[in-house]
Amino acid sequence: MERIRKAYIYLVAIGSVQKRLLLASAKNIKEVFGFEVRISDVPVYYQKAYNPSRGQFLASLILERIKGVELPKALKVVGITDVDIYEGELNFVFGLAELGGCCALVSTYRLWHKDERMFFERVFKEINHELGHTFGLLHCPTPGCVMNFSNSVLEVDRKSKDFCERCRTKLLDIYPL
Ligand SMILES: [Zn+2]
Ligand SMILES: [Zn+2]
Fold first, then answer.
1. What φ, ψ does residue 141 adopt, rounded to 5°?
2. Is 126 known to be catalytic?
3. Chain centre to alpha carbon of residue 127
4. What is the pLDDT of residue 60?
5. What is the spatial distance between Cα 112 and Cα 106, in angstroms, rounded to a whole number?
6. Where does the chain show beta strands of DSSP type E?
7. Cα–Cα distance between 63 and 95 in angstroms, integer?
8. From the candidates 70, 89, 130, 165, which is the catalytic residue?
C-alpha cells in the first residue's frame, strides 16, 4: 500500500553491502511499512567509529554520521553495514536506532547465513525492528513479534519479521495508511 504523504524511507549502504540485499530490503520495508523506499549511495564517513582494541565499530557514532546526511523528503534513514558494531557494555549489537527519531543502523555482520534466503530474512527482521524503534515502538514480549529483543541470532530466527497486532496498531496510530 502506498502512503499518501510523499516521504521516503532511505536505505544507505555503509561499507560493502550487496546490491541484491539492498534491493530486497527496500522491497521488505515497502511491504511492511507502506512507504516508498529510496536507496541512496551518499557516503557516510564511519571510519572514526572504529575501535582498534575491540576490532569493532561504535554503533552510536555511525548513527550520528547517518543523522548528518541530508536526503530530500527523508522520513527515516536506515544505514546497513557489513561491519561489526558494539554499544556500551554490550559485546555486539545487531543494530541501533533513535527512539522516535529519524535514524537507524543495522549490521549484517552477525546475521550471515549460507542460505541467502535465511540471511536476508534475518536482515529484514533487524531492519523492521530498528525502524519500529524510530516510529516510537519499544521492545515487545509478544512471542514472534519483530519488536522482541534479540540477544542472539537464535532469537532473531525465532521471531517473525512482522509486528504483532498491538505493535501494528501503535504504528498505524502514528502513520495511518
Ligand atoms: Zn530493540
Ligand atoms: Zn509487538
1. -85, -5
2. no
3. 3
4. 98
5. 13
6. 8-14, 36-40, 50-51, 56-58, 74-81, 85-86, 95-97, 103-107
7. 10
8. 130
